[in-house]
Amino acid sequence: MKLGLNITARDGLRAVLIAGFLLLLGANLPGHMSYDSVAQLYEGHFHVRETWGPAIYAWLLGLFDAVIPGTALYVVASALLLFLSLASFSRLRARIGWIGVAVTAAVLLTPQVLIYQAIVWKDVMFANTAVAGVVLMAHAAAEWENARGRWLRGAAWALGLLAAVLLMGQVLARMAEPPHAPPETAMKQGVRIVQHYDLVGAMALDPRYRLDIVRKANPASTAVVESRGPVQYAGDRVDYMDRDETLGAALWALPDDAVRAQWLDLIVRHPALYLKVRWNDFRWVFMTPVVDKCLAVYVGVDAPDQKMKPLGLQHRYVESDVQLANYHSWYLDTPAYSHVASVILALALTGLLALRREPADIAIGALLLAGVGFAASFFIITIACDYRYLYFSDLSALVGLVYVALDFPLKRRSKPG
Each residue of 279-292: pLDDT tens digit? Predict the structure, then answer.
């Protein structure tokens, strides 16, 4: 399809992506860093292990920092994963329509791309790598000749690739661990925090619920938890419990086995109460009833000086950061910032792709459903309502929207030449 001066929609797509990428870099470099970002850059730079964050992410930050100090190079590389994935859609479709170019431009101007792609958070890198990986699968599916009917061969390849990815993940994880690092306890501590949150939430939502099992193991600490816990519980985040040092000390003084048994007892013997607690927490991260209680975005650079100074970082919240924060605020309380809307969009797009069912469509549909499943998993694990936790779900929906819009209405077409 052409629009004057022999400019095709495919040319327009490339121009929009290049302009969007340059705008992103110009508005945000060298990137935005919260405490989590600075702490993990510190770990990667000095090869130490101090936080619960994934060691492999700190390692990656350290690799980029070794080439060009700071996070500018990392931000460029991370954002390139997304933009190259979007650019590659022109190779998946024989036809590119101008409506798709317009939709792509609108997507690039959302805070999820224009701002979030420059925030140094593992949530963003995870989303970008997941999108890039599935888009590569879409290209492989589109190029796989005579694949129809050979499901055994396809299954063997899929299992082999899965095994290779898992093995590579283990190798990289071991490489990422700095020398003399303490034993990995993030998973254990994370589960324990969820257990604390559920048990305290159960007491808050049902005053009749008592911690009978942990009381036998530590009566004094249990009494503190039962008296102070319900007061500090809130569905939007677990941090309120952490701010009460007396409550925190009492919770962590309880034996692991007793807490696990009490938590399992809540699930098995009081399932309705457990589901009520989980729903109260999940609705905050998924529906965000009061967005001001949740961290919707982060701009600037800030962390304690003992982390910043060794890295040569300066605290930053300048006029450009203010403007980005104001720009982001235009999207709050709109469907563009709604996880619910993203899930609905993802399901609708999956339905459309299921009608066409081309090999690449199946991969993109899988990406969309993965985003939905990822959001659903937080029903069990959520402990806070910050937007970034479900960033992958929203980004996958936006990527799916671009893919569908580029060749709409959906019709079966020959493979691009």
Answer: 999 999 999 999 88
